[in-house]
Amino acid sequence: MQRFTCAVCSAPLFFENSRCLACGTQLGFHRGERTLAPLDDDGVYRDLEGRSLRRCVNLKLSGCTWLVREEGDECFSCTLTRTRPDDHDTTGLAQFLDAERSKRHLVYELDVLGLPIEDRDRNPERGLAFDLLSSVEEKVVIGHQNGLITIDLAETVDSHREKMRARLDEPYRTMLGHFRHETGHYFEGTLVFSDPDLTERARSIFGDDRASYQDALKRHYAEGAPEDWRREHISTYATMHPYEDFAETFAHYLHICDTVDTALHYGLAEGPGPNSSEDFGDVVRETWIPLSVALNQVNRSMGANDLYPFVLPPSVIAKLDFVHKLRVRVGEPVAGPPA
Ligand SMILES: [Zn+2]
Ligand SMILES: [Zn+2]
Ligand SMILES: [Zn+2]
Questions:
Q1: What is the pLDDT of residues 13-27, one digit of tens each?
Q2: d(Cα 332, Cα 112) in Å, to the nearest integer?
Q3: Measured on CA atoms in the order 309, 311, 315, 317, is the torsion positive or negative?
Q4: Other Cβ atoms within 10 Å of 314 Cβ, number
Q5: Which residues surround ligand 2, an ion (CB under 5 A)?
Q6: How many angstroms separate the alpha carbon of residue 67 from the centre of ligand 2?
């Protein structure tokens, strides 16, 4: 994540800010310019191309500050949400606000990396969309199918998520992590399985995705991961099926790119970033490993759990490099209209 500053008073700003805390200026996020733009007294920002923009209609509902063309419009990130809690579901709506914050972070990062998102307007069958459902009254299974991602909003509640994390013996579980993992399934569909050569190459790296998913699921929950899973996988869940191995790898690719990017912006790291090396192994070895080791120690100094409780063996670095090359192949950072 980049560093933002107030265009009026130069105070530091953060991606989530709707107002500069130093000078009070109201702000809106411009997706194309990638700035927190200052709004005038009418709530309008005139952008570099002379368009008058205002904030997304969901500012109150989900804290969304993204700019749109017409009053009452939803921004691109918000339109990706197909289902949200009802207006009378106050618990669900509070959780929805947290989940939407993570989703905007995800969309921002996909834009920075140039990973193309097709929504359901452009591709009704397989475009990206989100059902953000509260499991208070119904069972919700987090997952992905043909571009449609289902998220259990209960995962925004720390006590619930921590209980699930402990039960599943995971070292890391966050809402942003869920979004990253599930979009990994979407991008494997759009970027890998649309190309026979890449599909073959993915099968040689992650395993044959034609293996029965139901059998894999049953086996995983009955027997757990193989003893030596650390040699070739980033997590126990990644051992379940080649689909999950790709999605876990993709999530880690986004974890690493975003964290390295943030550290470089704040002067906390040295070395190649996600956009300055063709070989992702260089980014991992020269920037990410020294940085994550230091950040783990920083967390231990605060009595907190390791920031990155994972080990990256050579075979996992090769998987990350596969995702990196896929991304570089299609990647063109988004610029232009905000909505
Ligand atoms: Zn300011
Ligand atoms: Zn919005
Ligand atoms: Zn998955």
A1: 999 999 999 999 999
A2: 8
A3: positive
A4: 11
A5: 56, 58, 64, 66, 75, 78
A6: 8
DSSP state of 119: B
d(CA 10, CA 22): 9
Q: How far is CA 259 from CA 171, 262, 284, 295, 330, in A?
A: 18, 5, 12, 10, 22
Q: Measured in Å, how far apart are the chain's first and last C-alpha atoms?
A: 20
Q: Tell me the CA–centroid distance for residue 226 and ligand 3, in Å.
A: 18
Residues near ion ligand 1 (CB < 5 Å) are 6, 8-9, 11, 20, 22-23, 25
Q: For residue 89, what are the contacts with CB-CB under 8 A and spacing of at least 6?
A: 134, 136
Ligand nearest to the CA of residue 13, numbered in listed order: 1
HSE-CB of 54 using CA atoms within 13 angstroms: 11
Residue-wise pLDDT for 267-307, tens only, equals 999 999 999 889 999 999 999 999 999 999 999 999 999 99
pLDDT tens track for 203-227: 999 999 999 999 999 999 999 999 9
Q: Which residue has the tokens 């459902």?
A: 133
Q: Choose among 227, 231, 283: nearest CA to 252.
A: 283
